[in-house]
């Protein structure tokens, strides 16, 4: 039996990076997956790849900042696959980079809306569906930035990602009696499009790697495997946690 055999999962931010890797892995591990992002063509390519590998997936394109999109993801999971067991609220944006006092209010709002409010809206509609199933697992993608390290120039991103950990703890306390587990996944540097913005030169890439005890950043597949642990019954006694999958950056950052 595979880790998610018979489960139904939603994965947001699935058009690239961690979400893309997680959606493919969840499907390979037996889940029927609703994949979500703004870029429809990338989602269609992902669904085709999952199908070719013997998995089952459906795509819904839209913006996590819009509540109707959150509602439609859950409706798709229920109507197509019969319910919802796992939600990986992974969609996010790096936002505007630069000194906090130079960050524009519009960029601040956009980053908070995408990373934090988008996750809240998703969970708001996921919880009732999971209650009808008798439990489930909700995962938010946070970051070591704003949690274990202060990184200059990332105010909105850091605030939004730290907020996800507070949301995780609150929801875990609320939903534990109903057998819904809620956890935050805390990656270190990961080779995603957002990372490539930060590591735009060989010097920047080397500097970022040097902050990690493993002296490298993760592949999206490595972080997806940590998401799989939180999604599966292997983590049945894990809730309210900020799970570090960070290559040692949290204890090594200087």
- Total domain modules: 1
N/C terminus separation? 43 Å
Q: Indicate the CATH architecture.
A: 3-Layer(aba) Sandwich
In what range is the share of β-strand residues? 15-25%
Number of strands: 7
Order of helices and strands: EHEHEHEHEHEHHHEH
Largest β sheet strand count, sense and barrel closure:
7 strands, parallel
What is the CA-atom radius of gyration, in angstroms?
Answer: 17 Å
Q: Residue ranges: pLDDT <50 for 5 or more in a row?
A: none
Overall 3D form: globular
For the record, what CATH class applies? Alpha Beta
Average pLDDT for all residues:
95
- Share of helix, binned: 40-55%
Count of alpha and pi helical runs:
9
Name its key features.
globular, Rossmann fold, 254 residues, seven-stranded parallel sheet, single chain, alpha/beta
Question: Secondary structure elements and their pairing?
Answer:
Layout: E1 8-12, H1 17-28, E2 32-37, H2 40-52, E3 56-61, H3 67-81, E4 86-89, H4 105-133, E5 136-141, H5 155-175, E6 180-187, H6 193-198, H7 202-210, H8 220-231, E7 242-245, H9 249-252
Parallel strand pairs: 1-2, 1-4, 2-3, 4-5, 5-6, 6-7
Helix pairs in contact: 1-8, 3-4, 4-5
What does this structure look like?
By secondary structure, this protein is α/β, with parallel strands linked by helices. It has one domain (8-188, 220-252): 3-Layer(aba) Sandwich (Rossmann fold), CATH 3.40.50.720. Helix content is 48%, strand content 15%. It is built from nine helices and seven strands. It has helices at 17-28, 40-52, 67-81, 105-133, 155-175, 193-198, 202-210, 220-231, 249-252, and strands at 8-12, 32-37, 56-61, 86-89, 136-141, 180-187, 242-245. A seven-stranded parallel β-sheet has the order 3-2-1-4-5-6-7, sandwiched between helices. Helix 3 (67-81) runs parallel beside helix 4 (105-133). The radius of gyration is 17 Å and the shape is globular. The model has no long low-confidence stretch (mean pLDDT 95).
